[in-house]
Design brief:
- By secondary structure, the protein is of the alpha+beta class.
- It has a six-stranded mixed sheet with strand order 2-5-4-3-1-6.
- The two termini are 25 Å apart.
């Protein structure tokens, strides 16, 4: 199955990119929108997502990898909600602002703008790669796991 690409929003005062880098990985909890939940449930190990600071900053700041597929959200007893686990792959050399994304005709159909209220949206491979270019960021090769 082909790798999929996503964009995940986090308010930096709640959980910023630097928090993820410090922690090494985390589960992505608190999603309470059915469409966003369905996007989490569709994620597969090895998929990549852009990490977007919402509300404050409003910019893509890094790339994360999905390291564990969806399971029940441990922050609620309601079994309808799920989490995935993510780990940082690379920080953007230059963050890519929402203004830059909105102004670029190549990104006119991006779900970040079209479905702006959602915290987790799919991206096309072309959108993902283009935003990496805008951020002057190269995705490092995956490190082989030993053991």
């Amino acid at each position: 199955m082909a790798q999929a690409y996503w964009l995940m929003k986090s308010e930096p005062f709640k959980y910023a990119w630097d928090d993820l880098v410090r922690d090494g990985s985390t589960y992505w909890d608190g999603v309470r929108n059915y469409e966003a939940r369905n996007n989490l449930a569709a994620m597969k190990r090895g998929d990549l997502a852009l990490y977007y600071h919402s509300n404050e900053g409003k910019e893509v700041v890094g790339v994360v990898e999905i390291v564990k597929e969806s399971y029940p959200d441990p922050t609620t007893d309601d079994e309808r909600w799920v989490v995935v686990e993510i780990a940082p792959r690379v920080a953007f050399r230059e963050p890519v602002s929402l203004g830059t994304i909105k102004a670029d005709p190549k990104l006119a159909e991006i779900q970040l703008v079209r479905r702006g209220r959602l915290s987790v949206v799919p991206l096309t491979p072309v959108e993902f790669r283009y935003i990496l270019e805008l951020g002057k960021t190269v995705l490092p090769a995956r490190k082989a796991k030993r053991g």
